[in-house]
Amino acid sequence: MTSAKQSPTPHPSRTAPIPDTLESIKGYPDKLKIYLMAASSFWQVRFFDGKSTIKRSTGQTEKREAIKAAISFYEQLMINKHNGVAVIKNTRFDACVRSVMQAQAARVTRKEISAEAHQNDQHFLDGKVLPEFRELNIADINYERLQKFVDKVGVSLSGSSIQRYLGPIRKILDHAQNRDLLKSIP
Fold first, then answer.
1. For residue range 97-144, what is the model confidence (pLDDT) as tens digits?
2. Is pLDDT at 30 greater than 60 in this prediction?
3. Nearest Cα to 97, choosing from 115, 120, 114, 122?
4. Which of 13, 84, 105, 134 is the most exposed place for a label (fewest CB within 10 A)?
5. How far apart are CA 172 and CA 68, in angstroms?
6. Strands, DSSP E only, in the chain?
7. How far is it, in rounded angstroms, from Cα 130 to Cα 160?
8. Is residue 82 classed exposed, middle or buried when 0-12, 13-18 and 19+ CB atoms within 10 A define those classes?
9. Are 96 and 176 within 8 A, CB to CB?
10. 129: DSSP letter
11. Longest dimension (CA), the chain
């Protein structure tokens, strides 16, 4: 009688936490954890913010130093959240700008819009919009932030010029809403 071959037990991913090393940081939320994984000699840190899990290397091989790095990581996340700075790069305003401008460049190639219109949008984005909104999470751009922007640039610009800056912002916000990064446009 021939015995059936059993498939080998699947090995855990090299980037999965080694179970015996996974632990919370005392005095901090239970969702802040450090761990080791087979793919690195450095301790890793992860934090679940209620929406997604953010993971980073601590860059430390000693557990004590890894705990310090994890605490610093957590504190920076909280500062960024308070200031409206995006943690995940694809939800940042500048990531949405890149995506919109790539799509718009394709429209220029198809002759759906003029190259001049595309260049004008890029000019307005580079000039005042990106310096103001670049690192913000797209979902944190609300009426109040836009009003502060208008108040800031409105000191030296006419009403029609302000509208020229708001046009590309509207395109970016529309793009974000169409990709479910934004619930509504302010």
1. 999 999 999 999 999 999 999 999 999 999 999 999 998 888 888 899
2. yes
3. 122
4. 13
5. 38
6. 23-24, 32-37, 40-48, 53-57
7. 19
8. exposed
9. yes
10. I
11. 90
Q: What is the phi/psi pair of residue 124, to 5°?
A: -70, -40
Structure-block tokens of residue 100? 């919109």
CA atoms within 13 A on the CB side of 24: 7
Q: What is the pLDDT of residue 115?
A: 95
Please state, in angstroms and rounded to a whole number, the distance separating the CA atoms of residues 19 and 58. Answer: 18
Cα(164)–Cα(172) distance, integer angstroms: 14
CB 162 within 8 A of CB 169: no
Instruction: Please choose, from the candidates 75, 70, 54, 78, the residue with its C-alpha nearest in 3D space to the C-alpha of residue 21.
Output: 70
Other CB atoms within 10 A of residue 172 CB: 24
Predicted confidence at residue 141, as pLDDT, reads 87
- Give the pairing of strands 53-57 and 23-24: unpaired
Tokens for 158? 């006419």
Q: In this model, does residue 10 exceed pLDDT 60?
A: no
Place of tokens 């595309």: 118
**More confident position, 5 or 57:** 57
Give the chain's mean pLDDT.
86
Q: What letters, b where the CB count within 10 A reaches 16 and e where it falls short, cover 88-115?
A: eeebbbbbbbeebbeebeeeeeeeeeee
Residue 64 to residue 56: CA distance in whole angstroms: 16
